[in-house]
Each structure stands twice: as structure tokens, then as C-alpha cells.
Design brief:
Helix 7 (about 290-300) links the parallel strand 17 and strand 18. The chain has eleven helices and 21 strands. The protein is globular, with a radius of gyration of 28 Å. The chain is of the alpha/beta class. Helix 5 (about 140-155) packs across helix 6 (about 165-175).
């Protein structure tokens, strides 16, 4: 943005009178703009000969030194997070469009095997940082590693999973290297003309999809929701290289230390393969209340599912999420408790053989898809269902006896 005065200026002083910041003087019968000008446009609008012009478009900066697409190789205890393969798949498509390379940054410990494996998925270069200190994720070490390598190699795009780790690391790295970050993207593309990364994510509670660009800073950084991008496929004999990076981590000031890792005791089951699923939504109200959903699932020998609202509230982990950005399921029986039936949830479960919906709102759209609809408070209905099931009734009989 900038402001300038053309030769047409007659020195009429109208602009001086309109300027709220006294940022204009007349010299040699011409307006002169002073440093305290805020580009508010008052002078431009009053000038009778249109001699004052504000350039609204900022000149595009030269980012020709920034090249290549990077993916953060998130791992835990030596296992790559599945989102890495999704980002490699998407990163490959972006890199191809830009005619640039795709690299993975792989901080960890004794992780050479992972690096070799990544090459088989179409990665051109793996930056391997193999240090004992990086065995477990740590904000300070990982931020340092990512920021130092970005400063050294100038990638044009950096992608991370919108996982617990990625959501913590992404903003820290972006702040450290002074660039922007679009969180939680569900789609990425390259603008054909400007070659800028188009980062699309739901906004305003999911009511619109916003496409965000990072015009003036590099790299362009995004975290991407797991489960929405197509994972890279294995390619035989792909030729990539592993570059070992040595960074001095003794410079890093640690504010946190991993003392112990306690495994979550999970009722973990692959919901995609379950025959019966009992899912809880926002209507369940709390993580503790999910025990009721678990009890019903246990009574039926089924698995526990959840809507995204329940997952986002932290009541249950993401691997239980059913829907567009969770798992698609098609069990014999799907019981939706306190779930409204948003389209993103429905796409993940509407092929179930029998759908039983428990909801206190008779107008909830889940009822349009339900085989049996139980209108009422789930905290009253579920205990009664459990009681009936324990006394030998089938779930169909129990649901049918309640249906209103
Ligand atoms: C890009 C994108 C992807 C998404 N992906 C997914 C996805 O994968 N899965 C998903 O589920 N959502 C997804 N969503 C979110 C989705 O749009 C909805 O916001 C979400 O499904 C709502 O969850 P819910 O039904 O639990 O909550 P709500 O819509 O708030 O519904 C809660 C329901 O509980 C009922 N209720 C409240 N108290 C009780 C009670 N005591 N007894 C009985 N009923 C009660 C209410 O009547 C209400 O109908 C996505 C959204 C976007 C934008």
C-alpha cells in the first residue's frame, strides 16, 4: 500500500482540511504527504482533480528463494501417525503442481527405518534428525528443530497433522519464524496463477468453508485434519534421499520434561469392523456420562462411537468419531444417543442396517434416518434399555417397546 500525489495537484488545500491526522503540507503549490499518514483515504476522496492516489494493492513480495513442500513426520514411539501418509499424499499433489520436491522432516530417535519407508511413498527427501532427546515429543525441542531447518532450507509450504502434537507444534513454529498458519484445513490446493497455497477450512461453526491465503510471508503453514486427505500409496523403487541433520539441542531451554508416559486404558476397538455401535453425542453432556454409553455397548457386546461434538469436547478420543472426518461405519445396529443427525455425522453411519436414535428433540433430523426413534431423555431411556437387555430381551424388542 502507498500514497502519492500526481502533477495535476493545484495546491487547493482541500486535502489538508480533510486530513484528520495533519499529515499533508503544501510545498511549491503541491500537496506533500507526511510520514504520519495512515492511508485513511480522506484526502483522496475530496481532491477535486483526483491528484491524490492510494495504491490499495500491496506489491507481491519476491519469494523465489522459497521452494518445496514439507511435511512434519509426526511419530510416537517409532510409529508414524497415519496423518503423515495423508499429508504425503496431498503434499505430493501440491509439489507436482508447483513442479517442486516433497520432503518429510523426521525428528525422532533411531528412526532411519521410518525414513527409508517414507521414500517408498513418493517422498523426494527425508530430513532425518536422530537424537535421544527427540524420542518423545517435546514442544521446545521440536519447535527448535523445525524452526532451524525451515530457516536453513526455506520451504514454501509446511504441513502438519491437526493432531494433539501438530496443534501444539504448528503455532509455536509459525510464531518463531514469523509466518501465518491456517489450522484445521480440510482441503488444500495451489492457485494456478499466483502459485499460492489455497488453504480451506470450515469457519463460523462449520457454516461456511473459508479459503485462506498467506500472501506476505513464507513458508505457508497449515495443519490438516486427520482422515480427510487421501493417503499416499506405496510406490516401488521410488528414488529419494535421506539427509541427516545435526542440530545442537543443548541450546534449547526446556520448560517441560517428560517424566513418564501413561497409556490410556481404552475400550479400543476398530469401530469400522464392529457389528454393533452405541454412539454418544453432545447430548451425553460429559466424559463421565459416557460411562452410560459404554455400559450399553458392553451389555450388547458392541463398540463405542461418538459424534465430533463429543470428541471435540474432549469426552472421548478421535478414534471413536463416526462421520466425514472420523470413521465410516456400517454395523448391523447403530444406536445414536444425544446426536442430532448433522449431515457430516450421517454420511459416516447411514448405511447401518438398523439405526436406533435416542433424542429428546422430536424434530432432530436423526429421526429421519432411524429405524426406531426413541424420543426422550437418554439418561432415563438407556438405563431402562440396559435393564430390559439384561433380563433377556433383544435390542430390537427393547427399542420397539419404547418407540413413540
Ligand atoms: C468439515 C466438517 C466435518 C465434520 N465431520 C464430522 C464428523 O466426522 N462426525 C460428526 O459427528 N460431526 C462432524 N462434523 C460436525 C457436525 O456438523 C455436527 O456439528 C456434529 O455432528 C454435531 O454433533 P452432535 O449431534 O453430537 O451435537 P448437536 O448437534 O449439538 O446435537 C446434540 C443432540 O443431543 C440432543 N440431546 C441433548 N440432551 C439430550 C438428552 N439428555 N437426551 C437425549 N437427547 C439429548 C439434542 O436434542 C441434540 O439433538 C463436521 C463438521 C464439519 C464442518
Amino acid at each position: 500500500m502507498g500514497i502519492f500525489v500526481t502533477e495535476e495537484c493545484t495546491g487547493c488545500k482541500l486535502c489538508i482540511r480533510s486530513c484528520p491526522f495533519a499529515a499533508i503540507e503544501i510545498k511549491d503549490n503541491q500537496a506533500v504527504i507526511l510520514d504520519n499518514c495512515t492511508l485513511c483515504g480522506s484526502c483522496e476522496s475530496v481532491c477535486p482533480v483526483q491528484a491524490i492516489k492510494i495504491e490499495k494493492e500491496e506489491k507481491t513480495k519476491d519469494f523465489s528463494d522459497y521452494k518445496n513442500v514439507w511435511v512434519f513426520g509426526e511419530q510416537r514411539e517409532g510409529d508414524l501417525n497415519s496423518v503423515v501418509h495423508e499429508l504425503v499424499g496431498q503434499g505430493r499433489r501440491l509439489a507436482n503442481k508447483l513442479k517442486e520436491n516433497l520432503s518429510v522432516i523426521l525428528p525422532g530417535y533411531q528412526n532411519i527405518a521410518q525414513a527409508k519407508e517414507l521414500i517408498n511413498y513418493g517422498v523426494d527427501k527425508v530430513y532425518l534428525i536422530d537424537k535421544k532427546e527427540l524420542a518423545e515429543y517435546n514442544d521446545e525441542y521440536y519447535t527448535y528443530v523445525m524452526a532451524e531447518l525451515i530457516k536453513k532450507y526455506n520451504p514454501s509450504i509446511v504441513l502438519m497433522g491437526a493432531t494433539t502434537i501438530g496443534r501444539s507444534l504448528g503455532p509455536r513454529v509459525a510464531a518463531r519464524i514469523k509466518t501465518g498458519l491456517t489450522a484445521d484445513c480440510t482441503s488444500l490446493d495451489i492457485d494456478d496463477k499466483s502459485k499460492i497455497l489455497l488453504q480451506t477450512r470450515p469457519a463460523f461453526g462449520g457454516n461456511i468453508m473459508a479459503t485462506i491465503v498467506c500472501k506476505n510471508h513464507r513458508p505457508q503453514m497449515a495443519t490438516v485434519r486427520p482422515g480427510v486427505m487421501k493417503a499416499a500409496e506405496k510406490r516401488e523403487n521410488y528414488e529419494g534421499i535421506i539427509s541427516k541433520e545435526d542440530l545442537d539441542l543443548s541450546k534449547v531451554i526446556l520448560k517441560t520434561e517428560v517424566i513418564d508416559i501413561v497409556r490410556e486404558i481404552e475400550d479400543s476397538i476398530n469401530i469400522a469392523e464392529a457389528d454393533i455401535i452405541v454412539s454418544g453425542g453432545r447430548g451425553v453432556g460429559s466424559g463421565e456420562n459416557f460411562n452410560l454409553i459404554r455400559e450399553l455397548a458392553d451389555t450388547l457386546g458392541g463398540a463405542v462411537g461418538a459424534s465430533r461434538a463429543a470428541v471435540d469436547s474432549g469426552w472421548i478420543s478421535h478414534d471413536h468419531q463416526v462421520g466425514q472426518t472420523g470413521t465410516t461405519v456400517a454395523p448391523r445396529i447403530y444406536i445414536a444417543c444425544g446426536i442430532s443427525g448433522a449431515v457430516q455425522h450421517l454420511v459416516g453411519m447411514k448405511s447401518s442396517d438398523i439405526i436406533i436414535a435416542i433424542n429428546k428433540d422430536p424434530g432432530a433430523s436423526i429421526f429421519n434416518y432411524a429405524t426406531y426413534g426413541l424420543v426422550g431423555d437418554l439418561f432415563k431411556i438407556i438405563p431402562l434399555l440396559i435393564e430390559q437387555l439384561k433380563s433377556g430381551a433383544t435390542i430390537k424388542e427393547s427399542a420397539a417397546s419404547f418407540e413413540k
